[in-house]
Amino acid sequence: MTKLSVNINKIATLRNARGHNRPNLLQAARDCEQFGAQGITVHPRPDERHIRYQDVRDLKAVVTTELNVEGNPTPDFLDLVREVRPEQVTLVPDAPDAITSNAGWDTVQHQAYLQQVVADLKAIGCRVSIFLDPDLDMVRAAATTGTDRIEFYTEDYARRYPTSPEEAIRPYREAAELAQELNLGLNAGHDLDLDNLAYLHRNLPGLAEVSIGHALICDALYLGLENTIQLYRRQLTDTQS
Ligand SMILES: CC(=O)[C@@H](O)[C@H](O)COP(=O)(O)O
Ligand SMILES: NCC(=O)COP(=O)(O)O
């Protein structure tokens, strides 16, 4: 079964636009779970333009499924996750001024550093996932870091899917097969939506979890949050495959 973790960054973006507490992020997390989300993902960025560090602390007390905290393991980020101890930490190599995540790790170049961070986080009970492009060398090097999982950065898949689904999925499928051989758990995320999700799910062996935010929250404006989460869940059922 592939789990759906709903990324609520964009709920915080909307809240921060007015500086008050509407929409209420904690209530939104509770509601997502009640509507069928099997996890809540947040990506606190250094400028706190959407998720604030305090939100992560508050969410830990509220989320009953699984809290996944994404980010670049800067000293501040590591202090935060050491304090909060979310169920999963996803390491993302994004620059402080990045508009959004735009690349996976170079696990060859940063192998020793990642080994140290992964060991540190596993020692406090967090599952660790490393954000990665579907590159076989990067998958092999990720396995040597001791990480539990990798998360495929799916922007390239999403961009190519409308014109050629087969071409779009090929590198991801090959990398997923290698991940299985290496006993690495597999997550995926970025730009997944109601058009491209079922095909990804059908074609990636061992896909444990997808985290989806931007498109899902956009869809919810038209379809409602409960209905939208159910629609995304349906893309991940095996009968769809
Ligand atoms: C790692 C990843 O792909 C997501 O966290 C994505 O970057 C969403 O972050 P933003 O909501 O800040 O764009
Ligand atoms: N890890 C990916 C994620 O959390 C959501 O990415 P997106 O759906 O907002 O592009």
UniProtKB/TrEMBL annotation:
GO molecular function terms noted in the UniProt entry: pyridoxine 5'-phosphate synthase activity
The enzyme's E.C. designation: 2.6.99.2
Listed InterPro entries: Aldolase_TIM (IPR013785), PyrdxlP_synth_PdxJ (IPR004569), Pyridoxine-5'_phos_synth (IPR036130)
Keyword Transmembrane belongs to the record: no
Gene3D superfamilies linked to this entry: Aldolase class I
Location, primary (coarse class): cytoplasm
BP GO annotations: pyridoxine biosynthetic process
Catalytic reaction list: 3-amino-2-oxopropyl phosphate + 1-deoxy-D-xylulose 5-phosphate = pyridoxine 5'-phosphate + phosphate + 2 H2O + H(+)
Function: Catalyzes the complicated ring closure reaction between the two acyclic compounds 1-deoxy-D-xylulose-5-phosphate (DXP) and 3-amino-2-oxopropyl phosphate (1-amino-acetone-3-phosphate or AAP) to form pyridoxine 5'-phosphate (PNP) and inorganic phosphate.
Family recorded in the similarity comment: Belongs to the PNP synthase family.
Protein name: Pyridoxine 5'-phosphate synthase
The organism of origin for this protein: Hymenobacter mucosus
Gene name for this UniProt entry: pdxJ
